[in-house]
Structure formats: C-alpha cells, structure tokens
Amino acid sequence: MPSPDDASTPDKVAHSVLSRPILGARVGRLVGVSLDGQPLVQFEGCPGPVPAQNFVALDMARLRGAVGEQRQVVLLFEDGDPARPLLVAMAQASDMPSLLEQLLDEAARPQDSKTPAPAEAAPATMDGAKNSVLEERLVLGAQRELVLRVGEASITLRRDGTILLRGVRVESRASGLQLIRGGKIELN
C-alpha cells in the first residue's frame, strides 16, 4: 500500500510538475476568462486553469470568441514559475489571414505612391451582415464569363466585351442625360 508521501499520487505529480521551473515556451489552450478579465490558460502538466498575464492585443469580445474555440496559445513563464504564465501569442482564427499572408499582401502592393495599387478583390457583404464592410470598389473577376443571376434576371459579362442583360422587364433610369451610343443601334 503506497504511503501518502509517495510521489506517484496525482496531487504529488501535479505539484512536482508545477514546482519545476519552465524555462522555455510552451503551447497551451485558452480555456476561460477570469472575473477581472484575465485569460485563463491550461498547458501540459497544469492541473487546472491558471490566470495568465496577457500580452496579446484583443478586446473582450475577441478574447471570449477565442475562448469559445479553445484556441492554442504560446506561453512563457515569469522567472520560470509555472503559476505565472505570460500569454505572448495566439493561433489565428481559421477565417483570418495568417501573418505570412498579410505580409505577402503588403509586400505585393506598390511602394511608390505615384503608382496606383492593382485592383484587389474585396470581401462581398450582404445586407444585415453584422460585420458588413462597405468598400469603395469591389472587383469580381473571371477568366471567360461572369454571370450575376437572381431569379429570372441576369447580367452576363464575356471576355470578348459582350454584355448581356436578360430579364422579364429591363428598366433604365437616369436623373440626368442618358446616352445610348454604339456603332449601330437596333430597336426591335
């Protein structure tokens, strides 16, 4: 029968792991937020959530979202003390571009202010979307043909310059002068 002083009991093992200094970085998980807003983390050898000093710039809503995903975090430890973790980095959400992708996009932009930036695709938004972003310009592209379709109506753009408007009723309005120009205009 093991004695209470036996180092193989779970409490003794957890205490011995936490009493040893951690000198390098360790990957853990963000598991909660304390009442005072500190992130709670867990890592290998840690018996339960530990409050961490946060060095990642996140507002409370994003912090709670990361907790919901139990996102991975990189931890350092103040003076090697496992009870005093420092949260220094967090894994990106899957819908966000990685730091490498952001840097490559930035490097691809022209540095000369006289050179216009190339047309970039912007995220499409929907009416009523919570994080709707209004862009000054939205560029959609296709190699051969681009079709916008809603019910019986469609707009087709072709590579050869042809534009097809189809619908049960086609209406064109202008508050000022409306011009119709072409090499040849055919009505009916």
Question: Would you write up a description of this structure?
Answer:
The protein is an alpha+beta fold and 188 residues long. Among the domains are: 10-90, Beta Barrel (OB fold (Dihydrolipoamide Acetyltransferase, E2P)), CATH 2.40.50.140; 138-168, no CATH class. The chain contains three helices and nine strands, in the order H-E-E-E-E-H-E-E-H-E-E-E. The protein has helices at 10-19, 60-68, 99-108, and strands spanning 26-33, 39-43, 50-51, 53-54, 72-77, 85-90, 145-150, 153-158, 163-166. The strands form two sheets. It has a six-stranded mixed beta sheet. A three-stranded antiparallel beta sheet has the order 7-8-9, with no helix packed on it. A hairpin with a 4-residue loop joins strand 8 (153-158) and strand 9. The longest helix is centred in the N-terminal third of the chain and has 10 residues, at 10-19. The chain is elongated, with a radius of gyration of 29 Å. The protein starts with 9 loop residues before the first helix and ends in a 22-residue tail after the last strand.
